Amino acid sequence: MQAASHACQAAFLPDLKEVREMRQTTRAFLGRCRVPKPVAEFVILAVSELVTNAVVHGEGEVVLRITVAVDVVRVSVTDHNPAPAVLKEAGRDGESGRGIRLVDAISDAWESNGEETWCEFRDARAAA
Fold it and tell me: What are the beta bridge partners of residue 77?
C-alpha cells in the first residue's frame, strides 16, 4: 500500500439535490481508495450531514473535498458563510439541529471556522 494521499473535490451551487450526488460520489471514491466499508459508511454519513448543513445554512458555492491518506480520511466542506457550524440541542420534535452533533459522534475530530467545516476519521485504512 502506498503512502500517497488521494483527493476528490466537487464544487456546486447550493441545492439539496446535490446531497445525494455527493453521497454517491463519495461512495465511489472511497471504494477506489479501498477504504473499509464500515469506515466508508461513517464518512458517507458525515458528507451527507456536512453538505446538507452547507446547502441549508451556507452562502454561495459549496465545495466538498475528501482526502484519503494512509491512516486518515478527511472531509472538508466550505461555503461563504462566515458563521461557524455549532453543536445544537435539537428538540424532540425538531426537524433540524442534529447534523453537527451526529458528525461529532461518528468522527474522531471535527471543527468549523466559519467558511470551512471539516471532520476526520483516523486509522481509516488500518483494516484494509
Answer: 64, 117
Q: Where are the beta strands (DSSP E) in 16-104?
A: 62-68, 72-78
User: Rounded distance, CA 81 to CA 16, Å?
Assistant: 17
**Which pLDDT belongs to residue 80?**
95
Number of Cβ atoms within 10 Å of the Cβ of 1: 7
Q: How many CB atoms lie within 10 A of CB 56?
A: 12
pTM above the 0.85 mark? yes
Taking CB atoms within 8 Å and a gap of at least 24, the contacts of 86-93 are 86/112
Cβ neighbours of residue 20 under 8 Å, at least 6 residues apart? none
Q: What is the pLDDT of residue 124?
A: 66
